[in-house]
Amino acid sequence: MAPRKITPEAESAPEGNKQAQSTKTAEAKPKAKTTPTKAAPKKATPAKTQTGSNSAGVAADHLRSFIDGIERLEGEKQIIASDIKDVYAEAKGCGFDKATIAKVLKFKAQKPSEREEQEALFDLYLHALGLTDGEMDESQQLGVDASSAGKLITDNPYTTEDPRFKKWEQGWQMQTAFLAAQDNTDAQ
Fold first, then answer.
1. Does residue 182 sit in helix, strand or coil?
2. CA distance linking residue 22 with residue 6, whole number of Å
């Protein structure tokens, strides 16, 4: 059976009238006998994006839901920030220091390896600025000597489990930084 053709008037007509008009259109033309032929396969065409005033469809609704979700979360974030501020105020009222609490929270959030690295760098900077109490211990001095001798950081004689490992590494890094700074001033 041949497909029915629908006129433009039939497309804009209400549902009940569409059937009547499409039937009239089909009856008005005599049916010719045709031999069935294979239709060429249809090529897939990419979906067209709507522009202009007709683009308020699904994409706009989807975008609006993202915007609404972000606005809702931003509001919740402000409420949570206010709650955190209240907890800090309560802790301060009990005699606790806000800055120290924040530092403890930051410390807890770090991995142990990150903590060790930051502590080592902090100690290194303090020592380089002369802000440490006392002398370097033996393992730090060995690291300084190794750096001065041109040895690599991988030449550390201690294992990573040994507490002297970090001290040796600090000494090596401190001396390497010192030598690099000296080279820069000599080059100028």
1. helix
2. 6
Summarised one tens digit per residue, pLDDT across range 58-81 is: 788 999 999 999 999 999 999 999
Spatial distance between the Cα atoms of 123 and 143, rounded to a whole number of angstroms? 14
The CA–CA distances, whole Å, from 137 to 47, 58, 130 equal 72, 69, 15
Domain boundaries defined on the chain: 58-102, 111-187
User: CA of 171: how far to CAs of 25, 123, 129, 142, 148, in Å?
Assistant: 95, 10, 14, 7, 10
Per-residue pLDDT of 107-143, as tens digits, reads 899 998 888 888 877 877 877 777 776 666 788 888 8
- Give the SS3 label for residue 73: helix
The answer to pTM > 0.85 is no
CA 86/CA 89 separation, integer angstroms:
5
Amino acid at residue number 13: A
CA-atom Rg of the chain in angstroms: 39
Q: Tell me how many degrees the CA angle 151-155-159 measures, rounded to the nearest 5.
A: 155
Contact 171, 143 (CB under 8 A): yes
